[in-house]
Amino acid sequence: MTDFSYLFEPYDNLVSKADQAFLRMAGEFEECISCKPHCADCCHAVFGLFLVEAVFLKHDFDQLPEQERAPALKRCARADEGLLKLERTLAEFRDDPQMRAYSLARARIRCPLLDDNDECVLYPYRPITCRVYGIPTMIRGALRVCGKSGFRKDQTYPAFNLDGIHRELYQLSSELVDKKEAKGIERASLLLSVSKVIKTPVEQLISGELGGPGSEA
């Protein structure tokens, strides 16, 4: 069994950065933040997990009681159907980056970790993207805001640098793969769907023994 405990502290530091950024924005722009219990808009957005996030999410998911894990695993089927449909759409726009980005941004696929009460069964251990969804973020150099919030794209805010966090997640992910392998660094940059992650043993996530929809975002 691979020991990745040495990544606990650096990964937790990134999580803390995200949480602290959200709290600062909540203090300065309380009227703009609409996050509240059972608001599940972000739980339908499509995004991928870096390997280090995937390993931690799977580890924490496996600690849940069976009565919470079993329904989540069943919900993966519906999420995978949505991801497969999205992959086909993206393939149609292979030569049109703008339409690919538009299709990805517009896609709505329910996260399998979202239960019937619109509550995340793994909320305390949710990915960093989920933690900062309700505040302005910088992604690929562009300002992103939640459509349900009071933030506007034509205004200036102290946006959270998600690009920088992604670079750090990539670096941590690269420590989990064998750099001697030709595909090692490629796996470090691969983005995995939540449904793929919670269905796959940690060892397979690290070794790259994946397949099917949701293997990359």
Task: Characterize the structure shown.
The chain is mainly alpha-helical. The protein has one domain. The chain contains nine helices and three strands; from the N terminus they run αααααβββαααα. The longest helix is centred in the middle third of the chain and has 27 residues.
List keywords for this structure.
217 residues; mainly alpha
Question: What order do the helices and strands follow?
Answer: HHHHHEEEHHHH
Mean pLDDT: 89
Shape: globular
**Extended strand count:** 3
The radius of gyration over CA amounts to 17 Å
Q: Tally the helices.
A: 9
Residue runs with pLDDT of under 50 for 5 or more positions: none
Roughly how many Å apart are the termini?
A: 27 Å
How many domains, as an integer?
Answer: 1
Which SSEs are present, and which pair or pack?
Elements: H1 8-28, H2 51-61, H3 66-92, H4 97-106, H5 128-131, E1 137-139, E2 142-144, E3 160-161, H6 162-174, H7 184-189, H8 194-199, H9 202-207
Parallel strand pairs: 1-3
Antiparallel strand pairs: 1-2
Helix pairs in contact: 3-4
